[in-house]
Amino acid sequence: MKRIGLLTRDCAGVNAAIRAVVRTADYYGIEIVGIFHGYEGLINGEIKVFNRRSVSGIINLGGTILKTSRSERFKTKEGQEMAVRTLKDNNIEGLIVIGGNGSLTGAHVLAEKYSIPVIGIPATIDNDVNAIDMAIGADTAVNVALDALDKIRDTSTSLERIFVVEVMGRNCGYIALRVALAGGCEEVLFPEGEYNIEKICEEITEGNIRGKISWIIIVAEGKAKAADIAKKVTEITALETREVVLGHIQRGGRPTAFDRILAARYGNFAVQLIKNGEKDKYVGLNNDKLNAIPLKNIVKPKDIKTEEYYRIIKILT
Ligand code: F6P
Fold first, then answer.
1. pTM surpassing 0.90?
2. Cα–Cα dist 304/180, whole Å
3. Domain check: are 7 and 106 in the same one?
4. What are the average pLDDT values for consecutive 10-residue runs of the chain, which has 317 residues?
């Protein structure tokens, strides 16, 4: 294989993965063609040949130097055929896709329907990619959210106020549970579990009688809206409550050491796989071991060990 295309979604650590892919490919004498704006750019032929120096000074940068977008056209047969045409017209023999479940599902379509040798690299703050321990970006997102939470706690403690903090994660409670545990939060609402607002308010009221007034409730965006929960808590307890939505700050920022190292390992492994003729697979870490997993498994939901985390959070609060 002489030429491989590379397209990405965005989150912290993706640039470090781009660097790893480009430099590993260069090491093996393979050329990397960067595809801008994700699948939309693949359809439009927005490409540029990369070399080792194209990826200098990006290991610490958030986002993606390749830019990205959501592509409705790629969901259609016509869009997919145009994407394949770009690959053929530019002698691109294989493709590495860095992104979350949506991007990796697209990668599977190209491999299965159009026989393109494709390898996926999971990168999403949601950490909802099945069958692997970690996707690139999730560790940074948890740390960014935790940093914000520590600041919120300063006010919560000083003013003895209840805060409801909404975190991202789509339909996965990974960020919510990790942030709640690492931040010493009193309660967490997450998509994989149920909650009872009356019971939560009862605990708040009982705590209030004992003199505990500051509370932080983490809400995963896939479960509820912070504003709705804050409103209910005030209605039921008559205590002052504030909501904070952390939003996209969680997707950006300097990647943590963990994410940079993961990006280096995933990027390096992905190139080795595609060079060795593997296709329709994604790379993944399980108990610190790198594995190649069939992309068809991407659709299955991921087990994020909710019970263990929630149990500890409630014991330690
Ligand atoms: O999948 C990553 C993610 O940041 C989710 O956590 C969030 O629900 C979604 O993307 C936000 O998407 P957009 O940036 O298109 O609003």
1. yes
2. 14
3. yes
4. 97 98 98 98 98 98 97 98 98 98 98 98 97 97 98 93 97 98 98 97 94 92 98 96 97 97 99 98 97 94 90 95
